[in-house]
Fold Prenylcysteine lyase domain-containing protein.
Amino acid sequence: MRLQLGSALVAGLAVAAETSASKEEVKPAGVKNVAIIGAGAAGASAAYHLRQYAEEAGVKVNITIFEKTDRIGGRTLTVNAHDDPSQPVELGASIFVAVNHILYNGTKNFNLSIGSNYRVAESQADVTAIWDGESFVYETTDGTAWWWDAGKLWWRYGMSPYRAVNLVKEVVGKFLKLYEQPYFPFRSLTARTYELGLVEITGVTGEQFLAQNKIDEKFSRHIIQAATRVNYASNLAYLHGLETMVSFATDGAMSVVGGNWRIFEQMVRNSGATVYHNTTVSAIAFAKEKTSSSAPKYEISTASAGSSSTEPEVVATAFDDVIIASPWQFSNIEAGEGVIKHHIEEIPYTKLHVTLFSSPRKLDPEFFKLAPGSTAPSNVYTTLAEGEKPKEGTEGVGQTGFYSVSTLRTMLNPKTNATEYVYKIFSPKPVTPQFLSELFGVKVPEAFTSGSGENGDDNGGVDPISWYYPHWFYAYPVELPRVTFQDPILGSGLYYTSGIESFISTMETSALMGMNVARLIVDDAAGISREEVPAVMSEGDLGLENVKVELVVEEPGEL
Ligand SMILES: Cc1cc2nc3c(=O)[nH]c(=O)nc-3n(C[C@H](O)[C@H](O)[C@H](O)COP(=O)(O)OP(=O)(O)OC[C@H]3O[C@@H](n4cnc5c(N)ncnc54)[C@H](O)[C@@H]3O)c2cc1C
Ligand SMILES: *[C@@H]1O[C@H](CO)[C@@H](O)[C@H](O)[C@H]1NC(C)=O
Ligand SMILES: *[C@@H]1O[C@H](CO)[C@@H](O)[C@H](O)[C@H]1NC(C)=O
Ligand SMILES: *[C@@H]1O[C@H](CO)[C@@H](O)[C@H](O)[C@H]1NC(C)=O
Ligand SMILES: *[C@@H]1O[C@H](CO)[C@@H](O)[C@H](O)[C@H]1NC(C)=O
Ligand SMILES: *[C@@H]1O[C@H](CO)[C@@H](O)[C@H](O)[C@H]1NC(C)=O
């Protein structure tokens, strides 16, 4: 990845200028047809807010969502332990926090119940410990945050924990301005990053940002890096400062009972959109019909999973606006000539293995060099050992070989009625039977883990593994420091939400971009103009000379 500071920034500002100039044009009062491609957090939020804003502004919208899968939620999804629908387990995005206003409001508005995370069972001491491959560097029982234990922290790290907490508050405060006028809505995320003073944070690594703010190296490595590894599969040296702060802002983490995707399902339902499931958009082109106004209309071609025809079908409706709500490089959409005015940069994504399984056994203390017969922690996050060189990509995991092992909860095995534990492992490579054998201190035969997920419990066995569900994702971008971001406007009436993932990749930020794009569409349709954030005139005025971007960029060959 290259940092093309000047040109990309200027391009970003140019989009902002160009599109705000055209917004004064008066649109005819007919129905606006809007297509949304993808029903993850971004697409669902775009649909929901589009309906709300359009109703408030008296704009008529007809929303159509195209979704490749049979589900709503995208990377927010559950799978059923033992194929039992009453036992859903989060496979993708699993936590959010109260300052995630869109998600949190969603749970209230849709009457969804919230469960706390990081707790196995009330009766059980839930210990989280940080393992560096040699020893535990930190251990805590459940407090207000997984790592918070005031006495221990003060003794070991002095003022650093307090400084870190204050730093998180300050950064979150700046970020939250994006929800409010005049920062909301935004046509350029790059411009807002400068205007909110966040570029000093996205432009440096977590390691640099923490050092600049006098956070002790040990505290950073032991505690904060454990958080960046479990949340973004990355060491501090390869993750920008903003994503580092987000990783650490998980106090009071919560999730929706039954699955976080329920928020997005409700958003889609409330939007009144027509939803085409099992429908992959394969192309976007300009519609052939000539419109009287200068605004183009778009033609969408789709391929249906299960349909016998291999030829893509052209959707009859011509769309005034199209929102692409999925990472472009994985969407396999062909764009007609001239459709994408602002090139979408391909970015490396982190390939992450998520392995869910259940077992009647607990983690073996001896794996962690604890005395035989003692109890191993139920959640083990990892970090690098002192002197271990941080690396990028798959190798970055270091000698521990995994980012985290969590005991999610206890459950009854429907076949035996025995109490079991449900585990989740995050790792850069597939989990092997050898690793599991060591982790549980008992032979795990190949057959237990060879099931392909769905039929994982057809392996004939119960002990030591009774249900097994391996999966991998392109989970989130490799969050290297950067000072420009893919902006949400690709062309006239053409929007893109996934650029925000290089800034912060969470359900909430995707939902925020969906809400932002919805606001822009309705503003333009209703001729609403907004107060501008004081303009940034030239690069010299941006304070860029104060941003030290020291990038160690290796080609992401192993991804
Ligand atoms: C393992 C894991 C753990 C995570 N943990 C957290 C967490 O704890 N908290 C948090 O907030 N975030 C977490 N995240 C990040 C979070 O999941 C994402 O940032 C967020 O869900 C992205 O939403 P999105 O709508 O932008 O994209 P997606 O969820 O990827 O949605 C895109 C949708 O578009 C569809 N689609 C793609 N191409 C086409 C096409 N051509 N035609 C039609 N449809 C198409 C896809 O099927 C998908 O439904 C995690 C992610 C992973 C993978
Ligand atoms: C609304 O969109 C659907 C496609 O999802 C289309 O069939 C319908 O004709 C549209 N309605 C109007 C009024 O344009
Ligand atoms: C989508 O496809 C799956 C698998 O082929 C099928 O079970 C499901 O019924 C389909 N859903 C819709 C809404 O067509
Ligand atoms: C969330 O709800 C509160 C209270 O109703 C409201 O003031 C706020 O604007 C909402 N925020 C978002 C992002 O929906
Ligand atoms: C909200 O959910 C609770 C518990 O699930 C239920 O008792 C209540 O009736 C619901 N309220 C509304 C307004 O749907
Ligand atoms: C499990 O318990 C249920 C209810 O107590 C009972 O009906 C069932 O037969 C039991 N199953 C097994 C395998 O013991």
Summary: Residues 1-27, 118-123, 452-459, 537-559 have pLDDT under 50 and may be disordered. DSSP finds 15 helices and 21 strands in the chain.
